[in-house]
Q: What sequence folds into this?
């Protein structure tokens, strides 16, 4: 079950770092792409990820109102929610895109987000569905 | 093609224990884009960095991938060290093999090795496609505009005038002094407010570098740090000037409690400001007074403490007792907020002078008695649990400061952010006088209700912050700090493919994107000084015209392709 995480440097990546320091054991099937802000996650990058056979994409950003770039992540969350409905329409399913803002700043929160998303992905058909 | 050097760090066995780095080394031999690679015991110590730099120089590689710990651990130290050795910051990428791989997958070494290899190849691909933003340098205009000539603005003007910068001091009214003109004495020093302004006004008027604009209105502000263009209409007529920095000291206004405690309907129910006005006229001799605190503050609508109402009530209560020692003075409060050594002493002084304090609850607030004019107050004393009837012929309501109505307009012109109440928001945390627009500083009650002496303190602080910018001859777009951390790039527009749809203009949180006429079509232009590289414009651009060179779409695409072991060429 392949999973890709776009982690904002000021939230998700800090959570990832402290989860590592706490040695919380996680499944190895995910890769993290660090971004400066969740706003940098282009919708077509998410689609490209699904197109290359990745089963789930998570975008971890700062909580709304806590963005380092004024209200940059407000626009990002709107854009990604819209993308979710488009994914529903294509049959891939919006639940394969996890938008999680302000929930992964600490070690256990980050581990929890990764684990629960893995569980959700396991309950869904594999990416061969659309490949 | 420029070569890539790869350093893998064993971290004294921490990474090695889980990930078999020697097998990765063998795989790296087959990668043609890598001209140099090595596995080292550690890379973050000073000697290691020096040695690595000399080996990279010898190998002729221009880009460097370092597999070791995360940015937050020792990664930044390694990058900073290599930059000091003369490497380009944009040409160094870190792969987090320790926190994000070895430590969290210790029970699954086979998959951990695969993951480490994928992560290294992802970064090699990203580095291959990464480009560098072009830098722009402008000269700084050594002048400053200060909006508002209250205590904060006056002290900022005085400081900057003393430092030798030309100051444009704008004031909405006709006299300098701001809210100090409306009150009789200031706490905690009990000086006359007029005397306090005079000290500053005297120096501001004497200094030829400080230009005062009474009855000023800002028509427009354009530009960016180091080079703002301002259009102002004032009593002297319309004027345009250039400034390098802007200090906002526009203050706040007093909220009027219409509809609360029958204010406006009963005579002798007045606000704190009206008491000040009576003290300005002369001594106020009355036999009894009741002060009610937290009127319209610390409730659901305004859940903040305005900080200056408790000390003001203490000050006026003591004055009434001083003028008529037989006067019965009560302060009805929800909590007395007097932080710091001087204000606590102020509270103790009021207690000693015979001011009486009664605590009430928000849900059970005092009631006014009387038909035409107030005759008494019914209050439920929380501490003693009894209802008390106070006979009085004056009720003073302490109301908070609320933001000025034109804050919205000013914030719109400068691209600033307001907080949920409408005050200008600072950069939280640790940068209390700076805003997210470089070159714009805030002080005084424009950022939060403060007392006059704190406003003066903040004014001086903002002035010094501005002086640090104005004192520089030039400023370059990439040297601006992007708080927190360092700015790593800015968006660039391909003028040939831009269709002028305006998506980026709508979404930019810093007002950096603007549409500009270019021949027959309009195209988007990015102001490199305002841009903070958040990437919103990149994400909404329909045809990939706007790009962040440091975060190129090809780099992201290559990273996604290589994320799960797929052997794809660069």
A:
């Amino acid at each position: 079950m392949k999973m890709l995480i776009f982690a904002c440097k000021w939230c998700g990546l800090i959570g990832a770092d402290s989860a590592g320091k706490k040695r919380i054991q996680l499944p190895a099937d995910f890769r993290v792409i660090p971004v400066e802000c969740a706003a940098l996650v282009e919708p077509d990058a998410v689609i490209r990820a699904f197109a290359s056979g990745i089963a789930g994409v998570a975008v971890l950003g700062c909580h709304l109102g806590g963005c380092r770039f004024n209200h940059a992540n407000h626009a990002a969350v709107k854009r990604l929610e819209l993308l979710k409905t488009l994914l529903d329409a294509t049959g891939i399913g919006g639940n394969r895109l996890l938008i999680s803002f302000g929930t992964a700043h600490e070690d256990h929160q980050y581990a929890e987000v990764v684990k629960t998303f893995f569980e959700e992905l396991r309950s869904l058909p594999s990416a061969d569905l659309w490949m | 093609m420029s070569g890539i050097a790869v350093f893998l760090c064993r971290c004294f066995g921490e990474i090695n224990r889980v990930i078999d780095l020697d097998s990765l080394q063998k795989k790296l031999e087959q990668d043609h884009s890598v001209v140099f690679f090595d596995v080292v015991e550690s890379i973050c110590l000073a000697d290691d960095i020096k040695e690595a730099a000399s080996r990279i120089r010898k190998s002729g590689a221009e880009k460097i991938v370092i597999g070791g710990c995360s940015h937050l651990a020792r990664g930044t130290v390694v990058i900073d060290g290599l930059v000091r050795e003369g490497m380009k910051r944009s040409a160094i990428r870190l792969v987090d093999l320790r926190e994000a791989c070895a430590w969290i997958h210790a029970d699954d070494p086979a998959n951990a090795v695969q993951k480490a290899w994928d992560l290294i190849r992802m970064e090699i691909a990203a580095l291959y496609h990464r480009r560098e933003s072009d830098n722009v340098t402008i000269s700084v205009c050594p002048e400053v505009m200060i909006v508002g000539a209250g205590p904060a603005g006056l002290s900022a003007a005085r400081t900057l005038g003393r430092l030798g910068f030309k100051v444009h001091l704008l004031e909405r009214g006709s006299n300098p002094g701001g809210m100090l003109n409306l009150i009789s004495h200031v706490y905690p020093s009990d000086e006359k407010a007029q005397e306090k302004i005079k000290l500053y006004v005297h120096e501001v008027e004497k200094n030829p570098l400080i230009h005062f604009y009474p009855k000023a209105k800002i028509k427009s502000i354009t530009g960016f740090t180091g080079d703002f263009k301002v259009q102002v209409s004032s009593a002297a007529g319309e004027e345009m000037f250039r400034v390098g920095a802007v200090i906002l000291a526009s203050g706040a206004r007093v909220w009027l409690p219409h509809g609360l405690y029958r204010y406006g309907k009963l005579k002798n129910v007045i606000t704190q400001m009206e008491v000040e006005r009576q003290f300005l006229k002369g001594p106020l001799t009355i036999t009894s007074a009741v002060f009610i605190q937290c009127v319209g503050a610390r409730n659901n609508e305004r859940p903040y403490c305005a900080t200056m109402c408790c000390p003001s009530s203490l000050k006026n209560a003591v004055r009434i007792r001083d003028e008529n020692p037989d006067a019965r003075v009560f302060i009805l409060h929800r909590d007395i907020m007097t932080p710091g050594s001087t204000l606590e002493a102020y509270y103790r002084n009021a207690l000693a002078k015979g001011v009486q304090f009664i605590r009430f609850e928000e849900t059970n607030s005092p009631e006014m008695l009387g038909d035409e004019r107030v005759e008494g107050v019914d209050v439920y004393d929380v501490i003693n649990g009894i209802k008390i009837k106070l006979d009085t012929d004056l009720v003073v309501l302490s109301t908070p400061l609320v933001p000025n109505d034109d804050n919205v307009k000013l914030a719109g012109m400068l691209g600033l952010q307001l907080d949920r109440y409408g005050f200008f928001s600072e950069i939280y945390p640790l940068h209390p006088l700076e805003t997210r627009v470089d070159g714009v500083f805030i002080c005084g009650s424009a950022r939060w209700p403060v007392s006059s002496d704190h406003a003066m303190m903040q004014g001086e602080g903002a002035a010094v912050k501005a002086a640090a910018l104005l004192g520089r001859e030039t400023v370059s777009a990439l040297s601006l700090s992007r708080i927190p951390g360092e700015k790593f790039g800015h968006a660039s527009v391909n003028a040939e493919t831009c269709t002028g749809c305006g998506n980026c203009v709508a979404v930019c949180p810093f007002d950096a994107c603007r549409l500009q006429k270019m021949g027959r079509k309009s195209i988007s232009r990015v102001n490199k000084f305002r841009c903070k590289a958040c990437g919103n414009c990149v994400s909404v651009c329909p045809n990939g015209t706007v790009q962040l060179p440091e975060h190129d779409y090809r780099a992201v695409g290559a990273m996604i392709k290589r994320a799960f072991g797929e052997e794809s060429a660069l």
